[in-house]
Amino acid sequence: PDTKLPKVGTTIFTVMSQLAAEHGAVNLGQGFPDFDVPERLIESLNRAMREGRNQYAPMTGVPALRQAIAAKTQRCYGYLPDADSEVTVVSGASEAIFDAVHAVVRPGEEVIVLDPCYDSYEPAIDLAGGRAVHVPLDPRSFAVDWDRVRAAVTPKTRMLIVNTPHNPSGAMFGEDDIAQLSDLLRRTGIYLLSDEVYEHIVFDKLRHESVLRYPELRERAFVVSSFGKTYHCTGWKIGYCIAPPALTAELRKVHQYNSFCSFAPAQWAFAEMIEAEPEHYEQLGAFYQAKRDRFREQLLGTRLQPLPVAGGYFQLVDYSAISDLDDVAFCRWLTIEKGVTAIPLSPFYETAPAEQRLARLCFAKNETTLDAAIERLRRL
Ligand code: PMP
Ligand code: GLN
């Protein structure tokens, strides 16, 4: 049929999870925890449903949750957004990204994305009639080459999408990136979409450089986060967007005709959880750092070479000592023949570096799951 996304297939995450299930592989592919969500959250969700919080939530999100998000933002980044005019609750970061792009990108306009990047950005841009302009990150450190980004700006550039901590690499912005980003956007009308879904999963005492810390950046930004990552519940699909009032108003126009509102009981549960247990997100970095360190230690006993990880819950590994297959073929082989599922990197690129031999492993898993994977990876 003559449709709008001719080049798009099923996402690599779905494809690899299906392949893992078919072959009984240990699934370190698609990013999701295999451990429980905090008990308090389950209780709050149950209570919300029993107390009748089962009808439409306000279009913009339950007020108590928007206030909790605003207060948390101030605690974390020293900026208090207005809960009514700057915070919107949506159905996952995926919806926030879609809504933000559709709110501002017009046919023929360009959006700069930094490759490798999350796979939902480009289809959202395409559906809005825009064009994604891909600028590669450094193939090893995944640092931004700001001169290349600057060179990609044209009079048609409408938006720049950044992601820190970064999926798939785990790289993070430093203060220098923020300075370069500010410099680049100053005196332009370019909007910024900052995907910060892994904001609380940060290691080695590094500081998450949220765009919300910087007045000059946040005045043009949609900042997106996801409770799926912070509270181990990727299936609940609740996220949010913080943006200045004028941008929030535009985002809400899309949101109200996209989903209208998001799952109400979970909104009540998160409102309670954020306020009652701030230590959950405060300690999330340490929780995942222990997993990262243990997993990396174990990887030293394999022929996979781990790359550095500053944040997020993914570990990139170089498999060139094991195989010369391209990454898609390697990840299929690893799943089918060796019983461990990883995600290839090339689907995150417009054009992946030809010689790159990298795969992504998710370590948001119980020790028993990671141990089972390592036992198989040792035999490679
Ligand atoms: N952005 C990035 C970088 C992600 O990794 C994810 C989750 N895979 C999303 C956005 C989407 O988040 P959500 O599940 O809340 O829609
Ligand atoms: N964000 C998850 C990942 O990167 C996948 C989300 C999805 O399956 N759409 O693995």
From TrEMBL:
Cofactor(s) needed: pyridoxal 5'-phosphate
Record InterPro entries: Aminotransferase_I/II_large (IPR004839), Kynurenine-oxoglutarate_AT (IPR051326), PyrdxlP-dep_Trfase (IPR015424), PyrdxlP-dep_Trfase_major (IPR015421), PyrdxlP-dep_Trfase_small (IPR015422)
Domain Aminotransferase class I/classII large: residue ranges: 26-377
Protein's UniProt keywords contain Transferase: yes
Gene3D superfamilies given in the database record: Aspartate Aminotransferase, domain 1, Type I PLP-dependent aspartate aminotransferase-like (Major domain)
GO terms of molecular function: kynurenine-oxoglutarate transaminase activity; pyridoxal phosphate binding
Superkingdom of source: Bacteria
Keywords of this entry: Aminotransferase, Pyridoxal phosphate, Transferase
Entry GO terms, CC: cytoplasm
Xref: SUPFAM superfamilies: PLP-dependent transferases (SSF53383)
Any Pfam family matching the protein: Aminotran_1_2
Family statement: Belongs to the class-I pyridoxal-phosphate-dependent aminotransferase family.
Name under which the protein is recorded: Pyridoxal phosphate-dependent aminotransferase
